[in-house]
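ok posting inputs for the guanosine-5'-diphosphate job
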Amino acid sequence: MKAALIGVGQAGGKLVQALAEYDARTDLGAVRGALAVNTARSDVQRLDVETMLVGQERVKGNGVGGDNQLGAQVMQDDATEVMGALDGVLTAEVEAVFVVAGLGGGSGSGGAPVLVNRLKQVYDTPIYALGILPGKNEGAMYQANAGRSLKTLVREADATLLIDNDAWHASGESLTDAFDAINETIAQRVGLLLASGEVTEGVGESVVDSSEIINTLRKGGIAALGFASADASEDAGENVNVITSTTRKALLTAMSVPDSTVADAALVVVAGDPDRISRKGVERARRWVEEETGSLEVRGGDFPLDSEYIATLVLLAGIERSDRLEAFMARAREAATQTEREDPRAAFQNEEIEDLF
Ligand code: GDP
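and the output
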């Protein structure tokens, strides 16, 4: 899938850079354009991808300090300039756009939904969000910001691929120490998903193409990605269990939003040497995902790669009913009320209380 990536905020920019670097290093060729937009000069200076500083009039390059309403305002003010800068990034070959942001901060949390909204008005290509959910131990402001941002992204984007910051990092490691490792893992897994739609040679019609990723995400809402890999035998017939067990592992223990198994649609991509991929294994894995997710719309296919491993990617779409998301939204609501108690003025902006006129 030929994708353009637009990072908003610190995490958004770092992730876009990690994805672009992974794509270039592995020669997969799915990332066709990259731009990082931010309000903080110090953050953009650290990046090697094309960058753009916004909100200079309001915040003078100093960032929005976790205020996502200000982040949204800045993006509204400068949207025309940002859209102008995208001309070179959003070329005709691009099949999907990903707006990438950490949802718990300010610039990305507020700016990403606004940018998605503007992009949708102008482009016919699918506009997806790639959002990072704050870890459970991050403070109330992060949870409240992420709740509002996610709610708006779900409304605005064609789909929101969500990654929980607690999902793909080693236990015992603090979240901030782990950022680089998490970003690399995200780059590998999301990068592989994007690249899986790019291969044109291989085992004929069973190869996954971009339209299958787009059709899986068509239902909208929140999506999640799982990944697992294992050594494979040279004989495809011996790899039926390798494929089914990596699929189980990806779905049950390695989803980007943990505890999400109920979904509206899914895509199972089995990556590896075509001679090692068992058709029977792929079909069994696909049927197992159908049973486990309760979805009747589960696609399956191969991603031919030169490797001694077999890796399985499971993309789920429409996972709003997952336990983790229900718990997150409950916590975000509670955090929103808590931050209001800390700031008495905010109580007058509570959306649950209607205006008189
Ligand atoms: P912004 O620059 O105002 O948009 O704020 P950030 O991008 O720093 O957003 C803060 C949120 O993103 C917090 O929930 C952090 O946990 C998360 N975050 C910050 N940096 C990174 C990063 O490099 N990787 C990941 N995965 N998450 C990050």
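notes: The domain at 224-317 is CATH 3.30.1330.20 (60s Ribosomal Protein L30; Chain: A;). DSSP finds eleven helices and ten strands in the chain.
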